[in-house]
Design brief:
single chain; 267 residues; alpha+beta; Beta Polymerase, domain 2; Hydrophobic Seed Protein; 2 domains; seven-stranded mixed beta sheet; two-stranded parallel sheet; 12 helices; globular
Length: 267
């Protein structure tokens, strides 16, 4: 496995004291089950944005990646009084949303670190994280924090992207594996007060037809944060400029008001 260049982490990027208890709890769970786990995605992105750009983002959940034995991990959680909130599949692997009794109000989403099976046996934990990061949708979502030593890896410049308020797509195929990632990108940049890089905008525009594969009501749930955002007018205009709106409900949604009537009708 090749080693990727890792962006330096500024010293001011630190785990908040309030988060150390649940991190310690998960570290114990992974040790008990004999597997390796790490934090990935939105929690890290939002915390770093708060530190660097002064935003006030509150992560609604925490994504945890597991290097195998995920069913055993879930068994320990449930055996210790945890609750199963949701189970679904992602890239043909199980994803579990669970809650721990000691930390009410916080959901933890457990997923399998996706690397080639033949690499698992000899890969180090850092290599697993670096490889899995290449399959992430956007650079700001590719950062990870190891639970055992709290080291932050930033192989694709996510910290700098947050600082510059410009996010980039890492993997075009991620739009085909999960077409809703196009709308997810808009949600992320709206939260961060950011823009897409020029190349990312062009790629999203070129491949926006994949959104036709997203079925309702799931499509509604992905559009809802965009249509109810304080920046909804600007977001809808960008969706229109990139040719994305024509791929929603067979292209019969022309205006923001029409979109709200269709996708927010149950609210």
């Amino acid at each position: 496995m090749t080693q990727e260049k890792v962006s330096p982490v500024p010293p001011e990027i630190k785990i908040a004291e309030r988060d150390l208890p649940w991190i310690g709890e998960w570290s114990k769970i992974f040790q008990e089950t004999g597997t390796y786990g790490y934090i990935k995605g939105g929690y890290i992105r939002d915390v770093i944005s708060n530190i660097i750009n002064g935003t006030d983002l509150v992560p609604k959940d925490v994504d945890l990646m597991v290097a195998g034995r995920i069913n055993k991990v879930v068994g320990v959680v449930l055996g210790n009084g945890g609750q199963m909130v949701e189970r679904r599949s992602r890239k043909k692997t199980p994803v579990f949303r669970v809650a721990l009794p000691s930390f009410p109000g916080v959901d933890f989403e457990l997923g399998v670190a996706l690397i080639k099976p033949e690499l698992y046996e000899n890969a180090t934990p850092e290599q697993i994280r670096l490889y899995e990061a290449t399959n992430t949708d956007f650079d700001v979502n590719s950062m990870s924090i190891g639970l055992s030593d709290l080291d932050l890896l930033d192989p694709h410049g996510g910290i700098q992207a947050i600082k510059n308020r410009q996010i980039s797509l890492l993997d075009t195929q991620s739009l085909y594996r999960n077409p809703e990632n196009i709308l997810r990108g808009f949600k992320v940049k709206d939260k961060l007060g950011a823009n897409f890089s020029y190349i990312t905008s062009q790629i999203i525009s070129e491949h926006s037809k994949v959104l036709r594969k997203v079925k309702r009501p799931f499509l509604d749930s992905q559009l809802r944060p965009l249509l109810t955002s304080v920046n909804a007018t600007e977001i809808w205009q960008e969706l229109t400029d990139l040719g994305i709106t024509q791929n929603l409900t067979d292209g019969d949604v022309a205006t923001l008001e029409q979109a709200k009537q269709i996708f927010l009708r149950n609210e």
